[in-house]
Amino acid sequence: MEEKFISVKGQLETAMKELQSLRNMQKDAIVTFKDITPFLQSLEQGIRVLTPRELISRKLNPGLYNGPIQYMMWREMQSILSPGISPLTLDPKTAHPNLVLSKNRTSVWHGDTKQIMPDDPERFDSSVAVLGSKAFTSGKWYWEVEVAKKTKWTVGVVRESIIRKGSCPLTPEEGFWLLRLRNQNDLKALDLPSCSLKLTDNLSKVGIYLDYEGGQVSFYNANTMIHIYTFSSTFVEKLYPYFCPCLNDGGANKEPLHILHPQ
């Protein structure tokens, strides 16, 4: 495993150098998206080879290269790839009546007043949560949520058939794959049993990586791409991003959860 790790690291560094070369070329000439498509396709194919499942297994010690390598590269290539990236938004039909969504539906926070809202079957009436508007039924997906200055929150992935009226255990068996923060530093993966996690760095942005066919939901410190936790399961129905900003606690937890979009 150590030899494979060193090999992957070396090949990633080579790919990074190739990317820098491309950027240097762009300084002297206008490179269209069509022009660089063959390069990106070959690079993506190579990166897939460099991402064996064991490298993102929760059984390994967290580290920089435990993250999905294609997304480390994606962060470096945002300016090139962003025309093909679909940003996530929140689904107001699922939002608890106490939640307030921004006009562009990328931020959510807990309001002081319960709003009068239609009692849609999709709407949460107990958990102060909201789902993303996009359903996932295949493929690999990655998004980031800004959680800075919040004292508590819960984010992750849920299946379409979860219980939304009343309360239920937030466990994988019930269709929830979630990371939860309480009291500003009490971080847990809501597995069975729940797993307490140590915060070694400031966690201001959470990266969430879903591999539908691979049966994995992984969480990362999006600033460093250090692995936090991975759930393993088998997915057979639609999955949705899950966002819970929690109560505002008299202003102590008033900051919103914010879905980050490529710039």
Automatic annotation (TrEMBL):
Per UniProt, residues of the B30.2/SPRY domain are: 67-263
Question: InterPro entries recorded for this chain?
Answer: B30.2/SPRY (IPR001870), B30.2/SPRY_sf (IPR043136), Butyrophylin_SPRY (IPR003879), ConA-like_dom_sf (IPR013320), PRY (IPR006574), SPRY_dom (IPR003877), TRIM/RBCC (IPR050143)
Organism domain of life = Eukaryota
Entries under Pfam families matching the protein: PRY (PF13765), SPRY (PF00622)
Q: What is this protein called?
A: Tripartite motif containing 69
Q: Which source organism does the UniProt entry give?
A: Molossus molossus (Pallas' mastiff bat)
